[in-house]
Specification:
Blueprint: H1 11-53, H2 57-70, H3 77-94, H4 99-114, H5 123-140, H6 146-161, H7 170-187, H8 193-208, H9 217-237, H10 241-256, H11 264-281, H12 287-304, H13 311-332, H14 335-349, H15 358-379, H16 382-396, H17 405-422
């Protein structure tokens, strides 16, 4: 056998060895650089998640943006994680500032994540992203294109349910069903109220098949409250006192399961819902007694949700008290109840601004217009006539004919009636 030795002193061999060593060093350097970069990305994503969980969404967004600068592929899982979670943070930021703009930015980010989180490759991530989009479109409907945005919310939530089943992901399934109930509830204010309320009830019932008081008490109370509220609204629209009574029975049952000491906020929400139900039931039985009961219950709820810590709840309860006083005037024809209703409407409007809560802002102005209109009928004071017109016109700036046709049709005849009286 003939063997030959490699002459390492040969210039050509030395050159080849130097090239091989250079390639190896380069590869090792690339591996180290990649590992370092990936570890930094992992660290940034972890830090961002912790910031979000601790209630610092803006700081979390900064960390996600830093991670995205290091992520080279827009098809990588880390890219989708950063985009999805950044969108989730913007939803939290939107609760306090630039709501519409931040919600729209969140939609763009989550859709970018969905370029990676396809239904086939990442079915569960796809479902959670679709569910999140559903929630965003639901909230966005408060600001513009209500019908289109609610339809998008429903479509995305239903797409999420094509993956998330009651058997494999019961908790998420129940949450999505609850969200769909919320969507149909809001849709009922835009069109086909009876059908959409019945749809909402159906979805809340499906949610409650998972969200039992034993397994998920907090979620159970949220959904059972929503369900009872739908029965209240459906009974009011269909003029069916038995349906309203059904809501009263549900609220009373839940009230017995709670007390103000151990579960004050659930207790307060139920008191409010029960108070609204009694107000609507008052037109069928024991009018004055049920209206006074309504005011008493909602006032107790408002004591729990103070203005500084729970402004939206406080404003909602204040609006409900105002509505009960306005109804009490119709029964008693006592002017003081109208004056009280107006005071409460004004207090609600200190929270319900046009930019932050446009629909509730408009609803409150509409109701306040009714109270001013009744005051004008009593003493023919032209100031009340002017205030009624102004309130209705402000309401119509939100309840336009194209976006909220049913609300628009309710208000226009009232304005025309006032115009005829003032001419």
């Amino acid at each position: 056998m003939i063997t030959s030795k490699i002459d390492f002193n040969n210039p050509g061999i030395k050159f080849l060895i130097s090239i091989v060593i250079g390639i190896i060093i380069t590869i090792i350097g690339l591996i180290i650089s990649t590992v370092t970069r990936l570890n930094k990305i992992k660290g940034l994503l972890t830090e961002a998640e912790n910031k979000w969980r601790n209630g610092f969404p803006k700081e979390a967004i900064y960390q996600y943006d830093e991670a995205l600068k290091l992520i080279k592929s827009q098809k990588s899982k880390n890219y989708a994680i950063a985009k999805h979670r950044c969108g989730r943070c913007l939803i939290m930021v939107a609760q306090g500032e630039d709501t519409e703009r931040n919600l729209n930015k969140a939609i763009l980010l989550i859709n970018e994540a969905l370029n990676v989180y396809t239904k086939r490759r990442y079915p569960y991530k796809y479902s959670s992203s679709k569910s999140l989009l559903g929630n965003i479109y639901h909230d966005l409907s408060n600001f513009r294109n209500p019908e289109q945005n609610i339809i998008k919310a429903i479509t995305n939530n239903k797409e999420a349910l094509s993956i998330t089943t009651a058997k494999e992901h019961p908790y998420d399934y129940a949450a999505i069903q609850n969200n769909l109930g919320n969507c149909f509830s809001k849709f009922s204010a835009i069109k086909n109220p009876i059908y959409n309320l019945e749809q909402a009830i159906s979805h809340y019932m499906k949610s409650l098949s998972i969200r039992t008081i034993k397994d998920y008490p907090t979620d159970y109370y949220e959904t059972i409250y929503n369900l009872a509220t739908m029965y209240t609204q459906l009974g009011d629209i269909t003029k069916n006192p038995d349906v309203i009574l059904k809501s009263i029975n549900i609220f009373n049952e839940v009230l017995e399961q709670n007390d103000i000491e151990h579960n004050p906020y659930v207790y307060g929400e139920i008191l409010n819902g029960l108070g609204v139900s009694y107000r609507l039931y008052s037109q069928y039985d024991k009018a004055v007694e049920n209206l006074n009961k309504s005011i008493e219950l909602i006032s107790k709820a408002r004591e729990i949700f103070n203005k500084s810590n729970y402004p939206k709840n406080y404003a909602g309860f204040t609006l409900n008290i105002a509505n009960s006083y306005a109804k009490l005037f119709i029964i008693s024809e006592d002017k003081q109840y109208l004056m009280l209703s107006i005071d409460y409407y004004k207090e609600a409007l200190s929270i319900y601004t046009m930019t932050k809560y446009p629909l509730l802002f408009a609803e409150t102005h509409n109701n306040m217009g009714d109270s001013y209109s009744e005051l004008y009928k009593i003493n023919k004071n032209i100031d009340y006539l002017s205030l009624a017109k102004e309130s209705y016109q402000i309401a119509l700036s939100i309840f336009t004919k194209s976006k909220y046709p049913s609300k628009y049709q309710q208000i226009i005849p009232k304005i025309n009636s006032l115009l005829s009286k003032g001419s």
